[in-house]
Amino acid sequence: MTIRVILADDQPLIRAGLRMLIEQTPGIDVAGEAGTGAEAVQLTRDTGPDVVVMDIRMPGMDGIEATQLITAGDTRARVLMLTTFDDDDYVYGALRAGASGFLVKDMALEDILTAIRVVAAGDAMIAPGVTRRLIGEFAGQSRSGRKPREITGITDREREVLKLVGLGMSNAEIAAALYITVGTAKTHVARLLAKLDARDRVQLVITAYEAGLVSASR
Question: Cα(1)–Cα(6) distance, rounded to whole angstroms?
């Protein structure tokens, strides 16, 4: 099955570089390009892509607002944000908007392709060095002055799994930590996604922080 991608960035050279990379990769096609957030939203509605690679900073409607409109709409599209390491405030906003992952613009091209495949498969992808620091700070801001989020309707085992997801563990690592099979770990994660109405693993990590299961220092 071919993964259809929209490239949204106000810099034509970046779009051209990504397009060239993707066109040389079997199984991934470019469904269209957008130079603004508004164009990205409309193009997503018109073409129904699997993944939107979205720059955070764009003129007019930025990538955060565009992501919020896309994830709130009736679409299967998932959003990968393009960011730099000095974009913390923007990344917080993107998390709230429902982004499924974050790419740093100087990442290796092969890593970008991997991220597209991972997000298209329904998982989440965050560039190394971004995950725990940014999500931990985001969750800390979200619950500043508030009680930890109360989570109901999940089992004790699912709560254990949620904590390990919050620590950034993969399904294989969760399975090893809890002495269960990888398939069972995957099933627990799938149930958490459904019960907590989370789009993907990124949202589960945020929930783990907001519930106080994980702290930014761990």
Answer: 16
Give the residue, 140 or 69, on which the prediction is more confident. 69
User: Cβ(42)–Cβ(69) under 8 Å?
Assistant: no
- Model-level pTM greater than 0.70? yes
Contacts of 117 (CB under 8 A, 6+ apart): 3, 27, 28
User: Rounded distance, CA 191 to CA 145, Å?
Assistant: 30
Judged on CB neighbours under 10 Å (0-12, 13-18, 19+), 98 is buried
pLDDT at 129: 52
DSSP-derived pairing of the beta strands 3-8 and 28-34: parallel
What is the pairing mode between strands 101-104 and 3-8? unpaired
